[in-house]
Design goal:
By secondary structure, the protein is mainly α. The chain is about 70% helix and about 5% strand. A hairpin with a 5-residue loop joins strand 1 (about 65-70) and strand 2.
Length: about 240
């Protein structure tokens, strides 16, 4: 491991350490699984205090770039690049409803419309079979005449997450999986249950799946965006009634 860190300029904080180690990881100088030098060695390399190094390592751990073990054989080790930190931040925003229905809809229309289009374009037969199975599971559930959204919402999330996977883009999938893992609070609060809405929701999902299966790229995207827009309008109307 051939590391060449720049000494800190006077008055610069732990962010200087974070920036250089992060760059070394991104550029491949530090590889997944490699251990960083000890705190004492890093202190010398950066010509800074041990407290500054510890703070920098804590930030790098929060970013998901390193894992830190304590003890005699402890230290900081470079982690595999993943989307965990991004997912955690987005999950908090959605779960605690820190974005409005309109903001959530805009985000979903953009990504889910794209995901549906890519799924139709790529045409992965194996994943299409899985999508059909989810649609059939939803049909079977609707046929039981449920009286609430609970099970439907679980299957609905599976449907949207499968479409996200079919887009074959890890960033798109990570974002949409996180949204649908945490969006239930919005539905519970703002989407009143009725048989009519249940059937309309299912009809929308069938339209999306049909367009994807037939390779109708633009139609798949339009169907996905139309579905999100329709139910956002319903929830916004219910939200206004609650606050009136």
């Amino acid at each position: 491991m051939d590391l060449h860190f720049t000494r800190m300029a006077p008055l610069k904080s732990y962010q200087h350490v974070v920036e250089q180690i992060e760059n070394a990881i991104c550029e491949g100088t530090l590889q997944q699984g490699e251990r960083l030098p000890s705190e004492l060695k890093l202190k010398e390399m950066f010509a800074t205090s041990r407290g500054t190094v510890r703070e920098a390592l804590r930030v790098l751990e929060q970013k998901g770039l390193v894992s830190i073990r304590t003890g005699v054989k402890g230290g900081a080790t470079v982690k595999q690049a993943n989307t965990d930190a991004m997912r955690d931040s987005m999950a908090l925003l959605v779960r605690h409803q820190k974005v409005s229905l309109r903001q959530l809809a805009e985000f979903r229309e953009f990504l889910e419309g794209y995901a549906a289009e890519k799924a139709a374009e790529i045409q992965n037969d194996e994943e299409m079979v899985q999508l059909r199975r989810i649609v059939q599971a939803i049909q079977d559930h609707v046929d039981t005449c449920p009286d609430d959204w609970t099970e439907f919402n679980r299957l609905d999330a599976m449907f949207h997450q499968k479409l996200a996977a079919m887009a074959d883009n890890p960033l798109v999938e990570a974002n949409l999986v996180t949204v649908h893992d945490n969006i239930q609070g919005y539905f519970q609060k703002y989407l009143p249950f009725s048989r009519q809405l249940l059937e309309k929701d299912f009809a929308d999902l069938r339209d999306i799946a049909s367009a994807v299966e037939q390779g109708k790229v633009k139609e798949a995207g339009k169907a996905a965006r139309r579905h999100i827009a329709r139910f956002t309008r319903i929830m916004e109307k219910h939200q206004l009634l609650e606050t009136a």
